[in-house]
Amino acid sequence: MTLEIGITFTILIIAIVLFITEFVRIDLVALGVLVALALTGVVTTEQSVAGFSNPAVITVWAMFILSAGLTRTGVSGYIGNQLLRFAGGGEGKLIAVLMTLTALLSSFMNNIGVAAMFLPITMDVARRTRHHVSRLLLPMAYGSLLGGLILLIGTPSNLIVRDALREAGLRPFAMFDFTIGGLIILVLSVAYVALIGRRFLPIHESVEPMAANQLNDEEAHDRYSLEERLANLIVPAGSPLVGKTLGESRIGLALGLNVLSIRRSRGRRIPAKPDVRIEEGDRLLILGRLNRIEDLAANPIITIEEKVKASTGLISKNIGLAEATVTENGVLAGRSLAEVEFRAKYGLNVLAFQRNGDIVRTDIRSITLEPGDRLLLQGSKIQFELLSDSDGVVAISAEKADEYGLSEQLLLANVPEGSILVGQTLAESRLGAAFGLSALAVARENGDWAMPEAELTLKAGDRLIIGGQPQDIEVIKGLSSFEVDRNVDVEREQLEFGSLEIVDVMLSPY
Known about the structure:
The chain is α+β, with helices and mostly antiparallel strands. The chain is built from 22 helices and 15 strands. It is elongated.
């Protein structure tokens, strides 16, 4: 035995061991074999990469692209679902249709891709027709393999043989040389499995998804630990949330909780719809991480200094107020603040908007601005200079700003000890997304007011000027007023009530 043969056998044995053990990824092992053969001199550098230009390799590569395209666009899934509808409920007919369909698709697609695509379809059909999935998966796999016998591109080995014939000077296989024989084998195989072979298929009880009649099972609790994430929120008398709808309460946005159902004080249970109004004594069954609501119940998020005129803090040596007028040639004319990305570009807050004497203080970002519109701006005095001269920016006093009715939407707030905001940045606090509030200015030990950055980490004792609606502050107070009862005895009707269902979902690779 020559040295080259010994090296080749050594590399082959190592590759086989790695393929079997899967200690290293299969694709890396294949590339490692290529590199090892080239480095040891068994093949030349040109020979080691010559396979990448082989028509068979390129054709297989194209088949994978075609398979992925048909799968991701949903074409193959749609065809499969539609054709499987004609299979009816009989097991033999279902097996015949399933094998034929997968064989026809795998004749021009990669058979592994077809099998992967039909795996969830087959399992869903088995569930809907109440057949054992173990008796359908094997015929489906057979069908995907039989498709390789119908067309030349059905399997890579056909292409390799075709190229070998061409290199030997013989007539290579054509696209449909296998078709007649492949179809005969397919028909005989389908008939055998559907009529005779299915009697030998295994019967294995499949694990059913978590269904409504299984939610009380101990296995369901062990799998999802629902009891650790379920609680009742009790609405006390005098809570600011009484009379508000579930949507207005912001329980989901602010706390990341799902309200499953509501039990009234009189014992009646109602579905948790966004337009349902909260009443005193309601018990809200919630699902989610409970530490946030418990922290909120123990300590308020912010405290409000209601007697302090908040607008005075908007003007200091660092920040100020200004009024901008939109002109025909300005950067704002004909565009909305969102389109201009005004806050990110200029670092300024738009507190109010005035057009023809009408003042708007909410949902300003989406309004298309017109020449003559006036904007009340707040921010660093240096940032005002970034606006073009055509959009005239004039500094104004707090008294002038009061003409925009700021006192109705500005509040002076303190961050108390124990607040869930302590240690969080403004971006992490989600004051805007969760509570509909925006921090316009911040002051610390030295008492100087400054523009807050999104990365500013909040500390206990910070003073904030907050822009928002009074009802948003009421929501924060209301969320702090909940009483948390973690002793929940889960029953099926509590988790699945009205139009709400709980299902078990498996995510596909895509």
